[in-house]
Every structure is written in structure tokens, then in C-alpha cells.
Amino acid sequence: MDGIPAIPHQRNHPEAARTGSSTAPTQTGAAGSRFAVLGPIRAWRGSEPLASGSPQQRALLAALLLRGGHTATASELIDAIWGEDPPPQALATIRTYASRLRKILDPGQLVSESGGYAIRTRPCALDLGVARALAADADKARAAGDRSLARTLLGRALDLWEGEPLAGVPGPYAENERSRLSEWRFQLLESRLDLDLELGNHADAVSELTALTAAHPLRERLRELLMLALYRSGRQAEALAVYADTRRLLADELGVDPRPELAALQQRILRADAELAVAADQPSAATALPVRPAQLPATVPDFTGRATQVAELGEVLAEAEGQIMAVSALAGIGGVGKTTLAVHVAHAARPHFPDGQLYVDLRGTEARPVEPEAALGSFLRALGHPDTAIPDSAAERAALYRSTLDGRRVLVLLDNARDAAQVRPLLPGTAGCAALVTSRVRMAGLAGAHLVDLDVMSPEEALLLFTRIVGEERVGAERQAALDVVGACGFLPLAIRIAASRLAARRTWTVSVLAAKLADERRRLDELQAGDLAVKATFELGYGQLEPAQQRAFRLLGLADGPDISLAAAAAVLDLPEHDAEDLLEALVDCSLLESAAPGRYRFHDLVRLYARACAERDEQPAAGRDAALSRLLDFYLATAAQVYALERPGDRLPAHLAATAYPGLVFADRHAALDWIYAEADPLLACVRQAAARKDAPVDVLRRAVDLLWAAKDLLESGANSRQYESAAVALRDAAQASGDPRAEGRARTTLTNVHLVAGRFAEADDEARQAMVLARAAGDPLPSCWAPNDRGIIALYEARYADGERHLREAIECFRADGNNVGEASALCNLSRIEAELGRLSSAIELAEQGIAIYDRMGLALRSANGRYALGIVLTQAGRTAEAQAQLTEALSLFRDNRQPLWEGITHFRLAEAQLAAGRAALAASHAEQAIALRVMGGEWRRACVVMVLGRALQRLGQTDRARACWRDAEAVFEQLGSPELTEVRALLASGTVA
């Protein structure tokens, strides 16, 4: 309960728990007595705890509190506390207890009447009263369609429990109430879990439900929720296995069959009932999707013409409200107005799509178009899915995307698509939804799409657009000149809009002045009426009016790849102080030649970028000026990334071995600011690396700096956030370095690619790259790969069960690290060697090596690296049977990984905790950790996911859920068989045994 101050014994103020306020009234004001029964019996006056006395006195207090202010007679209280065997002086004892309670409670709070007693207090002063109010409010919120609020309220109610209700309170009355309150808590918990599934949080719910069904195997409602959560997580076989386990358990324990609801759910799962993919009735915008997506760009207020196409597209989109999904694809040359028309039509169609509108620029004209999986990730976030619930693969993202849209009416605008292959995964695929696609190519391969070929404007439409921008008065006075202008623009909407906007911004110009400028062939290319050259010629009008410094900024900034550029990076390109660079960039924004993506960030429209590069090739002479601009950008990224690395890994020797830079980078106040920068700059930074790799005949120093930049930015790989883009950059660098014949650059590039394959679980590829890196490093005398490549080969050998090879490689790595004075690397190799030693049965040596590595990390203050060391030690301790110590080490590592934004390592550590809990005989906790690892969806490839699933199966087997366990093992078997992994033998043995694993 965020924002609620704690009071003694970690209890929250009951009324504050309900309202979210930090203070709340009680019967006697801020200092009034308050009580708790949802756990041990407790009482406070203000923040001061009150002594509640002996167990029997607490039993009296509980009996009075649970009567809600009604009077309990003395005989009722005696029966409540002692039942059928009261002591001889029971009545006198009751009076004594009442007298003691009266002394500690507020005056007049404990009253005597009709031979009995009552406690008068407001419901908000008792945690049970608050829980009841929260549950009632949750029911109202759910009935009103606000599931998110209902889920929050139920969570607050459940948070009020502190273990067993009335803990330690004797007597038959307390025992009965304890059972009743425990059962009510379960009902609230099941309602909250039901809401979790309705809100789409099925992946996270699986972990909790797995643990709950293990602890309470006969609660069929929990089993039903688990089946549904597994099915919605794409784990159909496990969902069916849960039913088989339940049927067998109920038959063995109770001699009954599962209830009809559970059997009906099994049948619906068997036939893949589409309605099971999402909640029975879609969540409102205030619940599972707290913000209905409304991502359409603003429509232009002066939209002109296109009446035929507007009507045609509007009719197609309206049909989506019925039984089909509508797809319309607009094709035409750049600048013809595809996006403008699509946005206008989309806004007009919004009433047909009450559940929202999604938009993405697919950047199909760029060298690196948006990958479908990246667009799907953006859409899923807009539709309410947290990052932890978004799968890794494009196929899983597409499936989750379609499931989320099922039953909803959403319009998707896919702008600037490259081809049909890029578009297909982004189509909703369900009735009621529609997609609008724009592209330079005709989408003939998009099955069922309504195709529209967009041509230039008619002369009448072109003149009307020009007039709406410039004004009736100015155009009316010079109609022929206006016709000359739109004619010179080739009736291309983008060219017309740019020309008219320039004129509108210059009140001293006449239309004839603009027409004369366009008539001058020196200012207008002959290609104005053909393809992309028309757009280029139109941009020439704006470029020609810039000041020389602005022109230079325009053409140099266009050289840099990447979706956008920060002000600091732009200043590096221009070799200017940031404030001078900002003035130039803002001037370009005013001229509509540059867009302000966000404060301090800028981007080109893709066509404007192409034009800017053409200007650079033409006007930035000699070519060395262009090369120098990109070199400064590379230096800026390398120098800044090196500082991020140094802040993250103090004492690591890598920064000392990086290529020298002539341009400085940013300086950060702390490591958190440094991490923020590296993740914010991920796309442009990796684009800079790829651009350097793609340069023909690039100088060796360029490739070396690009390789070093990629190595220094390894957080982008290890976090799992940008692994695919990182891999493409590493492959491009390796190929370019190999072509250049530079062993130093190639050796380092292969080392970065080794890390890529390791993270993805591709061990054969990783070992091949590491082996070649070692050969190249020796040839170049480069200490970096000479140290890290054998370290990586040792890890690979560990995973492939080649322990003698692994020991040899890691001992070589330790020697190299020590020779280089790299304590951080030495610690890493020591921890890796500890795991080899453990596999060889040398457990004492293994523990000692891991502890040596941790000692180095701790001495150097390396929190994140210390987490890696504790992770290794936890594994070794598990193998040594010291499971409590292993859990402590792994739990600390988990916390450090989470604090350092390392979801990949967070997931892997959950996996190791599952192994440790399983070794300790705590199968339910093992299953919970395994499910949490799976729910994070960032596990580093299919091999690691299969390892987690195999351990989950072991835990489920011990919990008696054998059918679900076998479903897990079959899933793992398929992966191991495809990869040729040594674990295949183990999982097949599990499938063959049928015994407890």
C-alpha cells in the first residue's frame, strides 16, 4: 500500500489502507484505539502499542471486537473462551479481564450492559472492518467495469492479513472465526487472481497459482484459474496436464470427479476455444487497458481534395464493424500524401473503432526498417501489457497481440511500410479491427487487402491546398502565378505544402516572387515531376534559403544513421558547443526541415534525410569534412560509453585498452544517470556502429573504434533489452573487420559476437568465434581478447559438460587477467572456474574460488559484478548441499540484478533459486521461482528456457502434478533435441522414469 506510513509491528493504519491517506479519523480522534485481528490480536492508541494481556484476555477482546459493537452476555463470553469446560471462577475471571481492558482502552469504549460487555468502535478502527469495506468497494468497482480499481482494492484488503487470523487466541469461538476468516481470505484471493486474468496478467499469475495449488491441492477454483492462466500463456499442454493431475488427485483423496466447471474448461482448451484467449467480456479502458490507445498523429487542418479516396477508404473501414477485418493499403511515390490521407481517413473513422487506434512509422525507406517484433512490442505496451509480460520472439508477440485485440475494435495505421512481409505480423486478424497501410510499393502480396494507388493531385486540388495555406487574398490577386507554382511542384502535395508554407511565413513576398524562384531551373531540378527526385527538388527550396551555418548543420546531421539524435550527439557532429548547436537545430525545426522528437532530441523525416545526404555529397567538399563529422560522432559515443562502463565496473581494465578518442564524451554524476543514457541512446548508438561497419574501405581506426564502442556498450546485450540490434551490429563489424585484414579489430569483434551467442545459448557458434578470437589476439598482441576469449570458452565448455577443457581455458584466462592487472576479469574467471570445480566434485575448492572472486568484487565496490559472483557461489553451494546458504547468496544476487536493471540475469537467478529450493525439498517454492523466471520472458534463448521448464517439471512432479510435469519435460525435450544439447539425455530419462525426480 504505497504512500501509507507504517505503524508498530509493520501494521498499516486500517483506514489509511482503505483511503490511501496518511491519517484517518477514529472514534476518539487521532489518538483513538485501533485493533487488528487478521493476524495476532493487537491494539494501539495512536502509534503506541497497547498490552492486550494473557491469551484468555485476548480471547475476550477478540470476541467483543468481532461482534461489531453488539453486546455479548457473560455466558456467551465464557462459552467463547472456554467452551464446555470453564474454570470454577469463570465469571469473576471475565470481569477481571474486562476491568484490565477498560484501563488500556479509550474512556467509554468498553461498556457494560445487560449483564454483558460490548466494545464501541468505528469499523475503520478494526482491520477486519477496513478489509470488509475494501472488498465491498471492489465489488462495486467490478460491477461498474473498473477492474483495475477492483483489483487494487482487493490487493489492499489482502495486504491487511498478517498470517493466520486470531493467531494464538484460544477457545472455540476463536477457532471457528479463524476458519471463517481464513476461508474468506481465500475467496478474496481467488477473486483477485480472477481479476489478474481478466486484466491480461496471466503470465505473472501462473507463478502465484502454481505455488497456491501446491499448498492447497484440493481447491478446484485455484486449479481452474491455473489452467486458464497457462492456456493464455501459450502453455496448452501444461493446462491440460493440470486437469489430469486434478482428476487423479480428487479420485484418490475424495473419490469424486472434478466439478463441472473444471471439466468444461478442459473441453474448451482441447478445442482451442477462441473466447478463452481473452477475458469473457473485454476490460474497459479504465482497467486492463488503463489508457485506450489513441496514437494517431494530428490531422492537418487544411486537408484538401482526395474526396474519392476518402469515401472509398471510409467505406472499407466501416465494414470492419461487421464480420470481417478490413485492410487497406495505400501506395505511391514519396511526398504524394499517403500518410496525410491515411491519417485524415483514420480520424474520420474513429467512431467505428471505440477501443482505440494504434500508429507506427515502419521506416520502410531506411536501410534499417523497423522490425515487426519491435513494432509489436510498442503496440503491446500501448495496449496495457507491462514490459515483463511481452515475449521475446516475434511469433509470440504476434500471438499475444492478436489475442489482446480479439473482441475489440481497434484501428491500426502502419505507415511507411517496406513490404508485405513487414506488415503481416502487425495485422490484427480479428473481426471488428482494421488496418491502414502506406508504402511506396504496391502491396500485391497482402492477401485480401483493398489496394489504393495514390497519384498526384489534380490542378484544382493543388491550387486549393496552396490557397488554404497561403490565404485567399494573396492567391486571388495572383491566380496565374499560383497555378505556375503548383505546376512547378508537379502537383505533389508535399512539395506544394513546403512551398506554400515558406510563402505564408514571408509576408513581404508575393506569389509571383515564389513562382519566379521555382521557374529558375538552377533552383528546381528537372526531376521535380518524377519519383523521389520531386521531393528532393522541393526540399531544395528550403535548403537554399538557409544561412550557411544552417546549411552545414542540415547536411552534416543527415549523415548520421539512427531514428533520432540527441543534442549532445548533434553538437559532436557539428563540432560546436551545445548551445550553438541547439540554435541551429531549432532554426531547422522552424523551417520544417527537422523535427523535434522530444526535448533535446531531433529527427529527420526519411525523405528529408535522403535529401540532406545528397546536399552533403554535393556541397560538403572535400569529402574529408563528411568523414570528420561521422568520426566525431563515433568518438562521442565511444568516449561516453567508456565512462558508463567505468562507472558500472570500477577497476575494470577495458577502458584502458579502448581506442583513443579525439572528441570528448559526456560526464555523469552517478552510475544511474550513466545507465539512463546508455539505454536511451541504444538505437542511435548501435546505428552508429553499423554505419561504421558498412563504410566501404573504412580506415582501420574507424573499425577499431566501432568495435570498442560495441564492447563498451555491452550492457545493451547483457540486459536483454537490445540483444537483437546488438547482434546485427556485431555480425556487421566482424565481417567488415575480416575484410579489412586487421587482426586486432577482428579479434575484438569476434569476442563481442561470442558474448552474443553465449547470451542466446548458441554454444557451438560462441565457441567457434572465441577460438578464432584467441588466434587473432595472439597475432595482434591484444590483451583484451587474449583474456576474455579463454574465459568465454571456459563458460561454453561448462555448459557443454567438457569440464577438463573448461578448467584449462579458465586457468589460462586467470593467468592472462593477472598479467594485465585486470582484477575484475580475474574475479570473473575465478567464479566461472568454481563452477567447473564443482562439476568435477571438488566442492571445497569450488566454494573457495567463488568466495575469492566475490572478495575481489566487494573490495572494488562492484555491486553488479558482485551479483554475478554470488550467483556462481549460490550454484556451487546448492551442489554442495548447503541449500540455506545458497538461497541467501542467490536472493542477494537477485536483488542486485533487479536494482541494476538486468532482467536477463534476474530471470536466470530465479532459475537457480528454483534449483536450490528443489534441492532443499521445497518443491512449491521451486515451482514459484521457475514460473517467475518464465514470466520475465528474458531468459537468453531457447536453451535456457528449456532448462527452466525442466526444473519446473521436477518441482511439479514432487508436488504430485505428474501430468503437468511431463508436459513441461516434453516441451524441454523438443528444444534440446533441436539444439543437440547434452540435457536431452537427462530429460528423456525423466520422461521414461515416471518416478519422483
From TrEMBL:
Residues 19-30 have a biased composition (Polar residues). It comes from the Bacteria. Keywords: DNA-binding, Transcription, Transcription regulation, Two-component regulatory system. Residues 25-121 bind DNA. Residues 1-31 are annotated as: Disordered. Residues 25-121 form the OmpR/PhoB-type domain. Pfam families: BTAD, NB-ARC, TPR_12, Trans_reg_C. InterPro entries: AfsR-DnrI-RedD_regulator, BTAD, NB-ARC, OmpR/PhoB-type_DNA-bd, P-loop_NTPase, Sig_transdc_resp-reg_C-effctor, TPR-like_helical_dom_sf, TPR_rpt. PANTHER family: TRANSCRIPTIONAL REGULATOR REDD, TRANSCRIPTIONAL REGULATOR REDD-RELATED. Belongs to the AfsR/DnrI/RedD regulatory family. This is Tetratricopeptide repeat protein. It comes from Streptomyces antimicrobicus. The lineage of its organism: Bacteria, Bacillati, Actinomycetota, Actinomycetes, Kitasatosporales.
